[in-house]
Amino acid sequence: MTEVIQKTLRDSAALRWTALLLLALAMFCAYIFMDILSPIKDLMAQAYPVGRGWDSTAFGTMQGSETFLNVFVFFLIFAGIILDKMGVRFTAVLSGAVMLAGALIKYYAISTAFHGSGIEVWFTNHLNHIPVFEQLGVSPFYEGMPASAKVAACGFMIFGCGAEMGGITVSRGIVKWFKGREMALAMGSEMALARLGVATCMIFSPFFAKLGGHIDVSRSVAFGVVLLCIALIMFIVYFFMDKKLDAQTGEAEEKDDPFKVSDIGQILKSSGFWLVSLLCVLYYSAIFPFQKYAVNMLQCNLTFEPVPEGSFWASTSVTIIQYVIMLIVAATAFMFNFIKNKPAKYATMALSILFLVGYCYMGYMRQSAESIFAVFPLLAVGITPILGNYVDHKGKAASMLVLGSLLLIACHLTFAFILPLFKGNDLGGVVVAYVTILVLGSSFSLVPASLWPSVPKLVDAKIIGSAYALIFWIQNIGLWLFPLLIGKVLDATNPGVTDPTRLNYTAPLLMLAGLGVAALVIGLILKVVDKKKGLGLEEPNIKA
Ligand SMILES: NCCCC[C@H](N)C(=O)NCC(=O)O
């Protein structure tokens, strides 16, 4: 008798990688929107009609608002419950719709239609104090915050709910399609595309704001909104693939690891969990909030010669060429991970480095802070999967967390004290900036590659979903607080500075280096606890 083996969509490599591509492209678009205003802080500071008159405090409060509802209304926890109850495909489409709704509000706030409207007048006079939050000692707005920043913050809060919900949903979707197959590779690829999203944002947000020689900051946000429409379409297409898969397998959606409040007590008893969560919030608070100010920090610490209008380096086509080169760097660095043949592997690496040098040269010639900072996530695209593989086979996760924190401290101190010494030295400053950004990029590969795979070693497998939700919640506190603090510290340490490209960034950078020192201390304690309690953090994930 011949046995008929029923093949499902996920048994086909092409189809399961298509499912991944849909999810990863949606997150690529989400990561672009997360930082859409970050590279144009200087423009946002200028008065209307060029900018919207946002000082550093307004900018930081708006940037931090992304995680406000996740933290203070516990939306992240609700998102976990929605995911458990409604499944991956429903939550994916919901997260896409929520992100788009929030993005449209943010677009309206920045658009010219908002300026002078009744809504602007209302927001100028209201919402300075929200009693329920003030009782908690926090507030999403403050007296005197520009109305456009308040409304943009409302939209960004809604977007942030969708983005974090999308993040956890995509991870669960990858598990659904790749369990027992190339799961780590799939997760690494999704993360790599997200990092490329940040680099894309750094290049194209200022490009659209300045397109045609006429500055319009709302064009950058419009670009992000269009991408979020594409993200929603990706999630909808995924919805139908996922539905077909369930019809084939006859399964209801997998609902393992549902979040339960009763899990919290068990998780919080683990000292290892606390140390990893603390390290996570400290480390990520020195990275993602920094990302929101980094372009402006470079504008303030480097001397950029204006590139003459009409020259090749000022043209639109050079932006496109530079972006294509970036894509080649990312693709070759990523491919390096999968090539087994040694000569081909090293040839790919050499090609990647060659194109990276070409990219850096163009960034220098264009005298553009945004294209200099865009190399930051590029290293992570290539290195994170290599390091993930190292942790899988050799271990040393705790040591990598310590090394990542050390590099973080060194980089923020270099930005604070060494980079300003090169002010006026055009080439020297750019070289120091590139090297420091690349080292920071490798730190940003070390920590995620070792931190996230360590969590399953600290808590029971059946409460792992709740543990990740809790870590994200703790991390979001830092991602809310630090953009805001950087803005406040900048305003406090730069009284009377009206030119947004002449701010002194020493104090905020010292604060970020301080976060690195705290992360380093926690990392060292983690190493001791790991040894004492045998948590296995230095052990490989895959035992031969
Ligand atoms: N602007 C928010 C960034 C997303 C944070 C997210 N919770 C996260 O940790 N993602 C993992 C990563 O390494 O990007």
From TrEMBL:
- How the protein assembles, per its UniProt entry? Homodimer. Interacts with lysosomal protein GLMP (via lumenal domain); the interaction starts while both proteins are still in the endoplasmic reticulum and is required for stabilization of MFSD1 in lysosomes but has no direct effect on its targeting to lysosomes or transporter activity.
What protein family does this chain belong to? Answer: Belongs to the major facilitator superfamily.
Q: What does this protein do?
A: Lysosomal dipeptide uniporter that selectively exports lysine, arginine or histidine-containing dipeptides with a net positive charge from the lysosome lumen into the cytosol. Could play a role in a specific type of protein O-glycosylation indirectly regulating macrophages migration and tissue invasion. Also essential for liver homeostasis.
- UniProt KW tRNA processing keyword: no
Name by which UniProt lists this protein: Lysosomal dipeptide transporter MFSD1
Where it mainly occurs, coarsely classed, is: membrane
Record the organism: Sodaliphilus pleomorphus
Subcellular location, record wording: Lysosome membrane
Gene Ontology molecular functions: transmembrane transporter activity
Alphabetical list of Pfam families matching this protein: MFS_1 (PF07690)
Query: What membrane topology was assigned to this protein in its record?
Result: Multi-pass membrane protein
Q: Which UniProt keywords apply?
A: Lysosome, Membrane, Transmembrane, Transmembrane helix, Transport
Superkingdom, natural source? Bacteria
GO cellular component terms, A-Z: lysosomal membrane
Reactions the enzyme catalyzes: L-lysyl-L-alanine(out) = L-lysyl-L-alanine(in); L-arginyl-glycine(out) = L-arginyl-glycine(in); L-lysyl-L-alpha-amino acid(out) = L-lysyl-L-alpha-amino acid(in); L-histidyl-glycine(out) = L-histidyl-glycine(in)
Q: Which InterPro entries match?
A: MFS, MFS_trans_sf, MFSD1
Any transmembrane segments, and where? 14-34, 67-83, 90-110, 149-171, 192-209, 221-241, 272-291, 311-339, 346-365, 371-391, 398-419, 431-451, 463-485, 505-526
